[in-house]
Amino acid sequence: SYVLTQPPSVSVAPGQTARITCGGDNIGSKSVHWYQQRPGQAPVLVVYDDSDRPSGIPERFFGSNSGNTATLTISRVEAGDEADYYCQLWDNSGDHFVFGSGTKVTVL
Amino acid sequence: QITLKESGPTLVKPTQTLTLTCTFSGFSLSTSGVGVGWIRQPPGEALEWLALIYWDDDKHYNPSLKSRLTITKDTSKNHVVLNMTNMDPVDTATYYCAHLEAQTPPDYWGQGTLVTVSS
Questions:
Q1: What is the pLDDT of residues B64-81, one digit of tens each?
Q2: Beta-carbon neighbour count of residue A67 at 10 Å?
C-alpha cells in the first residue's frame, strides 16, 4: 500500500510561514489533498488537487506538488491555524484513499 | 446544504460486529458521481480510510481491513451503513462519514461518533 510520510510537528511564530511536507514515491504524479483538523472537530478540506482551494479557504493556504514531496504552505500564520494537518491521495494500485501520518502545527 | 451524521453504538464488546449508519441530507446517492465514505481516527492518532460507496454501487475498501468491512446504501432513506466484524479494542476510534464526488476528495464530513471496544 502507498505510504505518505509527514513530519510529526512544525512550530511557527505568528505572522511567519509554515511549511508542511508530505513525502511519497513519485507523489508528484498524483493529486494530493490537504485537511486541517482542529482539536475535537472533524477534518476540513483546505487544498485539493495539489493546489486548488475550496470556497472559503483563505489564499494564505497554498499547495504544491513535485517529485517525491507535496507541500502545504501557510503564510502569515495566525493562532487559529494551530491544528493537525493531513495529506491524502487516491492510491490507484490499492484502489482506495490513503492519509498521511499527520503534522501538528503549533503557533508559538 | 449538505449535512451528514453518524449513528450507532458507543460501546461494543470484543468479537462483536459494529454497525454504523450515516444519515445524510442535501444530496442524493442516486446522482451520478456522488459517493459516501467512512474514515476513522483512534484517540490521538491519524485518520484512516475505511470504505467508500458510489451512486452506482461501486465499492472500495481499505485493503488491510477489507475482509472485515461491508458498506451498503439505501438511497430511498438517504442512509449508508458500514459493518465491521470481529471488533477489537484497537478498533476504538471516532468514526466519520463523508460526502464526495468522483475524482474528488471528501469535502463534507459528519461530526463523528466515538466507538469504544471493551468487555
A1: 999 999 999 999 999 999
A2: 10
